[in-house]
UniProtKB/TrEMBL annotation:
Keywords: Ion channel, Ion transport, Membrane, Potassium, Potassium transport, Transmembrane, Transmembrane helix, Transport, Voltage-gated channel. PANTHER family: G PROTEIN-ACTIVATED INWARD RECTIFIER POTASSIUM CHANNEL 1 (PTHR11767:SF99), INWARD RECTIFIER POTASSIUM CHANNEL (PTHR11767). The record marks 134 as: Role in the control of polyamine-mediated channel gating and in the blocking by intracellular magnesium. This is G protein-activated inward rectifier potassium channel 1. Pfam families: IRK, IRK_C. GO terms for molecular function: G-protein activated inward rectifier potassium channel activity. It catalyses: K(+)(in) = K(+)(out). The chain crosses the membrane at residues 45-66, 120-143. Belongs to the inward rectifier-type potassium channel (TC 1.A.2.1) family. KCNJ3 subfamily. Residues 8-148 form the Potassium channel inwardly rectifying transmembrane domain. It comes from Anthoscopus minutus. It comes from the Eukaryota.
């Protein structure tokens, strides 16, 4: 069958774009810090470089302007004449003085004299403004670098979901795994069924979301993700798949979105990994191959069999039937 449009890709990216915001786009500026963090790296680096470049040039121009208005650029800086900033004769020297002040490199050849009140005021303003700019931009870069988005790259989901019997009950199952030795603390998994439906009143819902029970009542949704786990959804009278059979599966159109959340043990930050399964990726009458084996004093996980399934005898009828 032809691959149809997904709501969530296999890598977890949501295929949703916001358009025609109109006047609502100003809301992004009201939360400018979060907007800046959400930008791509190339735009973050560009804003970072432009902000510092413009701020440095503007502040250096202000120091040069003070020296120009006081006539320090034409006077000889000696014992008989005390300038605002010693040894500032042109714009490059004013720029170097600003950089020395901003980077706290230390004063040697250029320094502020006590007979320049406007220079002292500008120095205080520069110190406050520099602290604000550093806190904003460096804080933004730090938060962006420490985001645990890449941690989701080492969380695996099986390529397909399976439907077979477990404990004499028909179940929908898929597998999750963690490739790193560092654990996901308080890991929790949720599933959403996205399917179009029409209400009894005639309203058409193109992307209706329905919760799939993966063990809320029993606590099975709270995972101890040390080794690969098989997540199980029991198909019963409360399940949206109550009327699903092997034959009707071929004509259905739905998408199962899986959301795995947890706290990264090394950083303490919350991480979320997502994937989805369409009806073409649900295998009726299959079961996952075992991946755990007992070695000499430890358990070994064979990830080469992580996605592998095999057929098992399964009734082709729905639970309702």
């Amino acid at each position: 069958r032809r691959e149809r449009q997904r709501f969530v890709d296999k890598n977890g990216r949501c295929n949703v774009q916001h358009g025609n915001l109109g006047g609502e786009s100003s809301r992004y500026l009201s939360d400018f810090f979060t907007t800046l963090v959400d930008l791509k790296w190339r735009w973050n680096l560009l804003i970072f470089l432009l902000t510092y470049t413009v701020a440095w040039l503007v502040m250096a121009s202000m120091w040069w302007g003070i020296a120009y208005l006081r006539g320090d650029l034409q006077q000889a800086h000696g014992d008989t004449y005390s300038p605002c900033v010693a040894n500032v004769y042109n714009f490059p020297s004013a720029f170097l003085f600003f950089v020395e002040t901003e980077a706290t490199i230390g004063y040697g050849h250029r320094y502020i004299t006590e007979r320049c009140p406007e220079g002292i005021v500008l120095f205080l303003f520069q110190s406050l403004l520099g602290s604000v700019v550093d806190a904003f931009l460096i804080g933004c870069m730090f938060i962006k670098m420490s985001q645990p988005k890449k941690r989701a790259e080492t969380l695996m989901f099986s390529r397909a979901a399976v439907i077979s019997q477990r404990d004499a009950k028909l179940c929908l199952m898929f597998r999750v795994g963690n490739l790193r030795n560092s654990h996901m603390v308080s890991a929790q998994i949720r599933c959403k069924l996205i399917k179009s439906r029409q209400t009894p009143e005639g309203e058409f819902l193109p992307l209706d979301q329905c919760e799939l029970d993966v063990g809320f009542g029993t606590g099975a949704d709270q995972l101890f993700l040390v080794s690969p786990l098989t997540i199980c959804h029991e198909i019963n009278s409360d399940s949206p798949f109550f009327c699903l059979s092997q034959r009707s599966l071929r004509s259905e159109q739905f998408e199962i979105v899986v959301i795995l959340e947890g706290i990264v043990e090394t950083t303490g930050m919350t991480c979320q990994a997502r994937t989805s399964y369409t009806e073409d990726e649900v295998l009726w009458g299959h079961r996952f191959l075992p991946v755990m084996s007992l070695e000499d004093g430890f358990f070994r996980v064979d990830y080469s069999q992580f996605h592998a399934t095999f057929e098992v005898p399964t009734p082709p009828y729905s639970v309702k039937e």
